[in-house]
Amino acid sequence: MNILDVKGLTKHFGGLTAIHDLDLHIAKGEILGLIGPNGAGKSTLFNCVAGVFPPSVGDISFKGESIAGKKPWDLCALGLARTFQIVKPFGSKTVLYNVMVGAFLRTGSTAKARDIAMDVLTELQLDHRAEQISGNLTIADRKRLEI
């Protein structure tokens, strides 16, 4: 089963068609890159998938559920969020603190958030940097932290 399915996605901005009839299927655990020239629709695709823009036509499914037109905060609760080229963690806070913020929003408990955050950091192989100030991480590690 695919974790993400995009079928027949078209996005118009007035008379401009940014994406036309795009199909994309991503399996769980698959890591892909998306390349193309400026204006090719890459950012528009990510914005449609992340709920920033609703599709003009087509459907987007995440974990088998249609998400087309849902808002970013609703998608985040489902486990889908986007990152940006410029990584902006809470630079003066620890790596652990940065991850705890997201976990706390789901649990409401500092202790549970800490446990979840440490599990996530272990999965991302950043647990040894938990008490390091996030602004001192390499770009690659900051990108992993943002995920």
Automatic annotation (TrEMBL):
UniProt KW keywords: ATP-binding, Nucleotide-binding, Transport
The keyword Cytoplasm appears for this protein: no
GO biological process: D-alanine transmembrane transport; L-alanine transport; L-isoleucine import across plasma membrane; L-valine import across plasma membrane
One GO location term (cellular component): plasma membrane
Domain ABC transporter: 20-147
Single Gene Ontology MF annotation: L-phenylalanine transmembrane transporter activity
Alphabetized InterPro entries for the sequence: ABC_AA/LPS_Transport, ABC_transporter-like_ATP-bd, P-loop_NTPase
Cross-referenced PANTHER family: AMINO ACID ABC TRANSPORTER ATP-BINDING PROTEIN (PTHR45772:SF7), CONSERVED COMPONENT OF ABC TRANSPORTER FOR NATURAL AMINO ACIDS-RELATED (PTHR45772)
Name of the protein described by the UniProt record: ATP-binding cassette domain-containing protein
